[in-house]
Amino acid sequence: MVKVGFLVEGDTEKKIIASDNFKEFCHRNNIEVAADIFPPKGGRGKDIFQDAEKVKAYINILKDKGVEHIFIIRDLEDLDCVIKARDEIKADEVVKVIVVKAIESWFIADNDTLTTYFGQNFSHDSPESIDKPFQFLKTKSLEIRKRGISDKLIFAGIMLKYGFSIENAAKHPNCPSAKYFINKLQSLSKIH
């Protein structure tokens, strides 16, 4: 098995990477997910990836724990292109995954899980075109379920409980950032 480590922007991404669904996908692809997902609570946010010394320190910790490949996952948010977001990550020895617009875009791309969550057929043609995907999900939840969503992390847990997987999001024809991530992971199992 190839050991992979992760540096992520926020607690939602950490929850997804630490989930059983994601670990099972990785296991099927001969990948072991490192137990430590950085940065630790309180040191989050995309700005941390602009600090080359901090990023290098996390990379070194992961390498000391036997990690062979490192992924950094951050949201595109308000930047106008993926290249700018990649350039803000001050590390060359990692796989840079830019989620367009935010990680909740991947929730919207997982039609099966949102259909279960909403209790009715749900799909969106272009989940990565939604400027504020969490706000979109809050609005849809109020419209369809007559209940709001107040917290991103709690909602991530609900999505995982209902079966969310990045693999499902990657199957969406218009969610290329999830597809890129899954393809990069699967390519690791082919080279080891």
Brief description of this entry?
This protein is α/β, with parallel strands linked by helices and 192 residues long. It is built from 10 helices and 4 strands; from the N terminus they run βααβαβαβαααααα.
What is the averaged pLDDT score? 93
List the total number of helices: 10
User: How would you sum up the global shape?
Assistant: globular
The parts where pLDDT drops under 50 for at least 5 residues are none
Helix and strand succession? EHHEHEHEHHHHHH
Our count of domains comes out at 1
- Strand proportion, as a percent range, falls in 5-15%
Helix content: 40-55%
In the sheet with the most strands, the strands line up as 2-1-3-4
- The span between the termini is 8 Å
The class by helix and strand makeup works out as alpha/beta
Radius of gyration: 16 Å
- Count of beta strands: 4
Largest sheet: 4 strands, parallel
